[in-house]
Amino acid sequence: MRIAVAEDSGIFRQALVTLLTTVGIEVVVSASSGEELIARIADDPPDVAIIDLHMPPTYTNEGVTAARHLMQRHPGIGVLVLSAYNETPQAMELFRGQPRGVGYLLKDHVTDVSTLRAALERVRGGEVVIDPDVVNRLVDARHREDELARLSDREREVLSLMAEGYSNAGIGKRLYLSSRTVEDHVRAIFTKLKITSVGGPPGPQDSNKRVLAVLSWLRAIDAR
Amino acid sequence: MGKVVVVIPAPRKRWSPPWFGAEAKRALGVGVIVAALATGCGWPYWQAHPVAMAVTLAGCGGFAVVGALLATGRRTRTTGRLFLVASIAWALNWLASWNAGIGPVLSGYAQAGFYLAIGVGVLVYPSGRLEHRADRAWAVLAAVILASGPTALWVTSEPEWAAFSSRAIWPAPFVDRELFRDVLWLYGVLYVVLAVTFVVVLLLRLPRMGRLRRALVLPVSLAMGLVGVSAALTQRPLMEDSIGLDELLRVYTIQGAVGIVVPLALLASGLRVRIAELAVAGRMLRLTAPVSVRRVRDALREVLHDPTLELWFWAPTERVYVDPEGRPVALTGRDGPCPGGARWREEVRTAAGEPLAVVELGGSLRDHASRVEAALVAGGRALETAQLQATVQANLEQVRAAYERLVRAESRERERLVRDLHDGAQQRLLALGAMLATLAAVTGDPEVKERAHRCREELLAALAELRSLVREVRPALLAQDGLGPALEVVTERFGGRVRLDVTARRFALEIESTLFAVLCEALSYAVERARARQVSVRVRVVQRSLVAEVSDDGTRPDGDGADISGRIRALRGHVEIDGSVPGTTTVRVVLPCE
Question: Where, if anywhere, are coiled coils annotated (chain B) (predicted)?
Fold first, then answer.
């Protein structure tokens, strides 16, 4: 897998590149800003670009801007945005529209090789990946909501994994359940929470559409 | 306006009314002298006509007294002197009664001088000069006609034709009865023309005056119009040839009696001014209790009918003038006309001569300097008290400005701290985590792997602590999206208990970060200490203020509350606790925002 990195902090970028190289992932470009990355991969795009969310000049959402720009210019490229902070609703901008191959990961989890590798591979495969801590924060914040209280513990686990972007098979594997059982849970969740999305209810196999529907439900509950 | 008003106590003579004291005595003296002169001039006639004598002496004396009094006023000096001249002229007019020597010839000129002096005297009142072109034209016309009239008489007639005896000095170089009749007819007409044009000129002046000034001028103008017209009409019989001396002097008596109306009207105007001054003083005293800087200014505005009036106080310790809010003002001139000339300023000093205040007034009050002065003197004690208040206000303002600078500097410092944590410590710790992961990946030793794993756990804990610190200082979201989104993240912690209604407008860095910190504190207090089940946060702009309200249904012990007012006050805002709705406590923060 060929990777490009955009990260303004020199010391973290260096450590990340060393880690990736050590575990056998090829780093083709190591840039200190989104603009530099976009310029340097223009002719030979990598499989996945890793982009820091907070970069100069405003340290707010430069990563999202660069990621959307990149996806527009190189359709099919995977983008993994990293953030040191969990409370970053601006990162949700990444998932606007119907994106493919987008991920959002906290930097804490980057230091865990298996999580990092899994995220890179899923993004490269066109999946949507969201850090479990981010999902937990969203689900926890709604924990006291009546509608979430109607879910069973198992259903809540399935909801979190859905939000993280796992397919039914992936969820089944993690929870040691059969695909059919997962499918039943998913249907129950959609019914109990009355989740809908543009163009009808998302099919169980369409995990990208599904995760977005779940995410927007989690974030939009105030507006209802 | 080259003078300075001094207040408390006010020992200056100008403050005593113009018709009492030394000036009044001097005026009375002048009146007596002129009356004596009139007595002498008209002596042959007075012996048989005591009533005419009383009327004439009173008229001459009265004229002289009013003239002398007016001559002491700054703006009425010219009018006063002219009236004094008029009174002497009228006295000399009675020389005609001697019916011999130079008297009869002089008498004609004296009568003409009398009318010219009071006519011009009224036209220059109260500004001290002939302001309009019509005024000047009339003055020239009057001078020419009034001077040539008596001349034409002695040039064309015998003294007997003009009511005098042959003992009178009467040059008569071109004696011609026909010509003399024509001269009489012509001047009879010219005197009427002069009287009518004078009334017209007076009427023309009125619309160009301000309200206060018209009130002052109107009675005098009416009186003078009456005098002018009556003079022209009573002069008619004199314009026949061969009238008797007695008849002539009777007309003079009537003209003199009518002339008294002018000084009486002037006295009435003076009284009016004086009463207005007293009323101003009384109202100032009423309007300025209890004293405040603003109240003194508003009282001055009201009593002087000038809503544009401005007042600045001298702050002695700062050695600068300050406005009613205590903010320093740079004044280019403290006394006299403002640049542009439409407005003027007057400096007020304390009894000790220290600067006290500067008043800026509209130009229309210039003719009413005495009224302005009366208001300032009456408001003197209030002004001094207000100056103390303004000084305290100025000191307070300095402290507040220093505190505000401190809060702004603190906001910038926080910003820098957050950036340092982000760029420095946190990235370094995260890099360390990645290095540990690399170490675990390259080693084959399970014990090293285990140690690296445990190090990573410790590292993540340290990172979490660091982040919660940064989050308290300043969330990245506040900088990018403002208060609303930043508060949204905070309220996620509390689930559905918090309702947000926050304006999308953006404000200055220190306002946003201070308000954010304060609202977080109020929120967590409401939820965690007061155990509220419903909290609503509302932030909106009302006029030029940012109003933030945190309302909750929690219970709190008396006197217990988050102390958030210090930082808010530093930004010129304030905090209110509102418990007017039962079961609900509202903390309201109001911050000024431009």
Answer: none
